Amino acid sequence: xxxxxxxxxxxxxxxxxxxxxxxxxxxxxxxxxxxxxxxxxxxxxxxxxxxxxxxxxxxxxxxxxxxxxxxxxxxxxxxxxxxxxxxxxxxxxxxxxxxxxxxxxxxxxxxxxxxxxxxxxxxxxxxxxxxxxxxxxxxxxxxxxxxxxxxxxxxxxxxxxxxxxxxxxxxxxxxxxxxxxxxxxxxxxxxxxxxxxxxxxxxxxxxxxxxxxxxxxxxxxxxxxxxxxxxxxxxxxxxxxxxxxxxxxxxxxxxxxxxxxxxxxxxxxxxxxxxxxxxxxxx
Length: 283
Description:
The protein is of the alpha/beta class. It has helices spanning 17-30, 36-45, 55-68, 102-110, 113-118, 180-187, 210-218, 259-262, 264-276, and strands at residues 7-11, 131-138, 141-148, 196-202, 224-233, 236-244, 247-252. The strands form two sheets. It has a five-stranded mixed β-sheet, sandwiched between helices. A two-stranded antiparallel ribbon has the order 2-3.
């Protein structure tokens, strides 16, 4: 008898502005990126609920970026791209080896006229970070519309789509974004061990860190069905998980924002388990 699995999968998701911003700055602080002084000032002077920043708040967040230094915010322990001339162009590449130059390779490929012709697309100039989703109210209801961030820098220091003051994906006229209510509504429609919503995280992602999702999930007040535990691949810890009623939080150890780029085998194990409606192995 064929069985269907009703699931939804969210990877490193920005679920709620308030809890996600708090989780992001807590992650930076607990991972020795920010000082006690800067962290305390952000939580004292910044109002994440209504985005009403003050001068001290702006200064504190600017300071947080200055203290971070030149690292890849999407994987705080990964090497950074320094010079395109240093890259070994003769290399064949491997899914098991992360290439910090991938952004430039991808942009060059997508802007190749022969590639665009093969895909039957009109001549287009693609860049990695120019287009973002912005939340705008329409008839009293918040909705997503495409928006350009202009010349928002895309390099090792400033994350794609992140303005320095961290008005993340929100227009000045929009209300604070949150998908917690939607997740709660969908969660109530799923029952049984083969029906769950999953959110996964690379645990070295500083842009949408696991702390942000944990804070967001905690607002749902869901009962825990499987307590926090490690999951394994080839006798090594692949990450950690906690299963709630209708929702699963799972991490991938040693992975950044784009999990398969850093840990392809662990990502495959996680996704295969998800499609099978089972939890990854506990040993």
